[in-house]
Every structure is written in structure tokens, then in C-alpha cells.
Amino acid sequence: MNPFHYQRASSSDAAIELRSQQDNSRFLAGGTTLLDLMKCGVEQPETLIDISQLSGLDTLRFEDDKITIGALASMSQLADHPQCQALAPAIYGSLWQAASPQLRNMATIGGNLRQRTRCVYFRDPATFPACNKRQPGSGCAALDGVNANHAIFGISDSCIAVYPGDLAIALTAFDAQVVLRNSQQQERRVAIGDFFLLPGDRPDQEHDIAADEMIIAVEVPNVPALRQSHYLKVRDRASYEFAAASAAVGLEIEDGVIRDVRIALGGLATKPWRATAVEQALRGKPFSEEALRLAAEQSIADADPRPQSQFKVTLTPRVIVRALLAAAEPAQRGE
Amino acid sequence: MSENIRLQLNVNGHQHDLAVDPRATLLDALRENLQLTGTKKGCDQGQCGACTVHIDGERVLSCLTLAAQAAGRDVTTIEGMADADGTLHAVQASFLKHDAFQCGYCTPGQIMSAVACIKEGHARSDDEIREYMSGNICRCGAYPHIVDAVREAAAQLSKESA
């Protein structure tokens, strides 16, 4: 780890001020991504501004119109909230199936949104000096390397690193907003679909967030489909593993007709990936397994796999169908 | 550039004043500064769970926590589990009874994790124990006995608290 200065912030405004004054500084919350990447030599900040002990930013509110999640709430706090499992099953599922209990106690919601890819080439600068995500223009070892678990959607000639998280997949399915505050104490709301950036030729730029902005909360519209939602995570081992493919889905079915459907995919793309074409194909249609199967095929129209990741093209529609069937189950039973 | 910082760590009910490099993790401070070597360094990357300790009663990874972040908070390590008279914690006793280890390196982390797992209410079935103990890797593969130990300790602790 490179040497750095450690500062514990006294308030969020003080933290943002410190951050805006120092180019190569980072907010330190749970530390599960940042300290890990510092040990790998990927992150080399000169100053860490510890925001983990700030009060008031870990509020959780489940209201009729929206769910508000404070940025410093831990993943466990949100999962353990008495209303999370019942009111937002996809969010709950994306939390308890992520990482490990210890990591979920540490990791914050804000930090979770800023977690970085697990691409082995990105994480190993000593062995693989070239990485367009670390240094744009330097090259990419993954393009012709071991890339079975790399992205098949949203890739560019520069980067095929997969977005590794679970929670943001659920947040993307339900059009969450990321609330940011800057050093002028101005707040800005960014739609989650815009918060995550495509790699293009600047894969180092991953989020729509300025140097003087801090994530202070996430807001999720409390739509009916959220109540009937599900997160399906398919992976190489049963627990404590990143997704090979995952789907956060939600359904609103009225008299057997799909009024609203939400589908976002994880483990497959360079950012949380909304399956818009499948949603469009299903909206207004009678609910049936056959209809789901037909529509889910549209998810892979723009897939761009490597030979090793071809299996994900087969996996994607299956995961979508399974997830939707699981979400529909209570309604099918007439609950 | 990174001058030492002074901080106070409260570990197993004892206050310690120390001066550490800002880069020092809680794991390193426990082992190197306080000679509490029960907490183990496995992967040092947050992937194996060997370094699990409790901060303010919650299980966390001490390898991904800066010592400075733990300042002023209550840290509990495996050395703080048994009673002052040496009576083992129910989970420790259960691990012994069920032979829930082979080499023993992951065991302090397993026990710290299991104590929290039971307290959280996540030890209600074998499947739930496996899921909520998945952050602790046992390279020897003692998992079946670990599940046995956690199940029995959970039953015993719930009987005691009833």
C-alpha cells in the first residue's frame, strides 16, 4: 500500500470540502473495495477522508411513494430492515446473496455503488501493466486472455470488464436515483442508468460523479412491481461468489395481463444492464411461460461475447425467465 | 509523508494507546502492536474470513479495516471470548466437542463469525448456517463439523437465554 494521510471527517460538509481541496483523495467508508484495491496497487490515493463514523447518513425510510436509503447505511442494515424483504424482495435478494456477512456489515450503500470490477487483469498491475481502465490507451490483457467471466453487453474495444455488483442491478430495474451533494451544498439527482457509464474509450471513468460530490442517498420509487420482485443469482458456487449471470425483475400483473415488468441484468455487462427490449415485448401481454420465453430471446440481440463467454448468451434468457417465474409465483398462487 | 498517528483502541475491554502508520490495518495493530495473535492473517484481501473480529458487536474483517477506523470503538477478538476464569464460550466448547477443525488456522475467525451468526438469528437451519458462515473459508474442509458445532451451540445458547 502506498503511504497516505488519514483524516477523519467531522461532518459530511467538512468531508466534501476536504475532498474538493485535494485531487488525489478518496472517501473511506466501509473500505471493502478501496483498501482492497490499495493493497493490489490499483488505487493510490494521497489522502483518505474517513466518513464511516459520520452520523445522519444511514437513515432508511420505506414510504408509500419511495424508499430512501442513506449512503452510509450498511448492506446488512438495509437487508435487516423489517420492511425490506416484504416491500422490496429484489433489493433484499441482491443484498443477502452478495459478498459475505462480514463484508455486508462493513460495506455501505454509497460505497457499493462505487465498487469496481473484479477483472483479474485490472486487479494485478504488477503482472499486467497494461489496462485501459487503470491507464486509458495502455491496452487490455483481457480481450485475448481468460475472459469467460467478462462482459457480453456494453463492451468496447478498450474494455470488457464486467460490473460485479448485485444491489445496483436491483436499483437499476426500479429506476433508482442517486442523490449527490457537492461542496456548494447543492444536491443533484442522477438516474441510476446514467450514474454508471459505458466504458467507451475511457473505461477509467465509471460514474457520473464530480470530484467534489458525495453520494448521500439512493431513492427508489415504490412502484407495485417492486413488491412482486425477485433477484436470481446464478454462480459457480452456491454462496460468496460473484454472479455468472443475475436478474433483478419485478412484475405487476392485473387480470392475467402484464401491466408493468422490470428486468435488469448482472454479471453480464460492463454496467448494470436493463433489458428494455424484453420489457417492451412483455408489457400489456397476457402472462404465460411461453410469452416469457419468446420475449426473453430479445435480450441477446445485442450480445457481443468472446468465445469463452459464449455460454452467457445461452444463460441470459434462461435467467430472465426463471427470475420472472419466481417473481410471479405468489400471484400465480392467488396471493 | 505518512507520519504515525496516535489512537486509542478498546480491545476486549482494555484501552490501549498506540502510534501506528496510517496504513496499519486493525489486523496488523492487533497482532504486531498488541501481540493479540489469535486473530489470523489469511488472504489479507477480505476473501477468507480468518481475520474476523467484532467491532461494536458486529462481525467484520480486520484486514480491510484501518486501525484508525476502529479508534474509539469496541473491538472483540477471539482472546476476549472465554470468561475471565477460563470457561470457554459455548461456541468454543462446541467447536472442541465436534472437532470442527483440522489445522486450526481458520478457527478463530470461524468462531468469531459463528458467535455473530447465532446472535444475528441466522443459525435456524443447516442451510442457513452454511449460507451465513460462507465468508469463512476452511482449507482443510472441516465444514460438516463446523455446521454441527454451530447448530449445537445455537441450540444451547437459545436454551440459556430462554
UniProtKB/TrEMBL annotation, chain B:
InterPro entries assigned to the protein according to its UniProt record, in alphabetical order: 2Fe-2S-bd, 2Fe-2S-bd_dom_sf, 2Fe-2S_ferredoxin-like_sf, 2Fe-2S_ferredoxin-type, 2Fe2S_fd_BS, Aldehyde_Oxdr_Iron-Sulfur, Beta-grasp_dom_sf
Domain 2Fe-2S ferredoxin-type: 5-81
The protein's name: Putative xanthine dehydrogenase YagT iron-sulfur-binding subunit
UniProt-recorded Gene Ontology molecular function terms: 2 iron, 2 sulfur cluster binding; metal ion binding; oxidoreductase activity, acting on the aldehyde or oxo group of donors
PANTHER family: OXIDOREDUCTASE WITH IRON-SULFUR SUBUNIT (PTHR45331:SF2), OXIDOREDUCTASE, IRON-SULPHUR BINDING SUBUNIT-RELATED-RELATED (PTHR45331)
Cited Gene3D superfamilies: 3.10.20.30, [2Fe-2S]-binding domain
Organism expressing this protein natively: Duffyella gerundensis
UniProt keyword list: 2Fe-2S, Iron, Iron-sulfur, Metal-binding, Oxidoreductase
